[in-house]
Amino acid sequence: GYYNLGLALRQKGDVNGAIAQLRQAKKLYPNSPETNYNLGILLQQKGDTAGAIVQYREALKVNPKYAEAHYNLGTALLIQGKPEEAIAQLREALKINKEYANAMYALGAAQARLGKKQEAIESFVQAQALFNKQKNPQWAKNCEQQIQKLRAAK
User: Fold this and answer.
1) Based on CB atoms within 10 Å of each CB, which residue in 5, 46, 67, 73 is the most buried?
2) Of 68, 143, 72, 69, which is closest to residue 112 (Cα–Cα)?
3) Nearest-angstrom CA–CA distance, 107 and 114
4) Do 69 and 33 meet the contact criterion of CB atoms below 8 Å apart?
């Protein structure tokens, strides 16, 4: 159907084609959180953060336990300069999945943006532990850099 074709086009790098197919899928199945979520990702790739936020919120209306949608909504809100709202969404994602390293990292970034230095360091330390556990040395190193930067900041 439209949904699978949309995902196939996305893999090929045809973002506009994928968006068109997922919009068709959405007309047929308006209550599919996956369709909204994937449409949100594509819109965000195109730089339409506001449009992506709408899609993530729609996905969460249908499935409030969709950790990835909470995470993506949180990062989109952070891009929009809304760190408080971002933190609320990232905490929801972490409530659903305590091992969500990317959400923990983004939480640290949002806290740092609000000047909550100590909280941010704690989040990055936790994210680093999760990334190490998941054998992801690149992101563990990113965490270390953030921690050093925050500790050096006056």
Assistant:
1) 73
2) 143
3) 11
4) yes
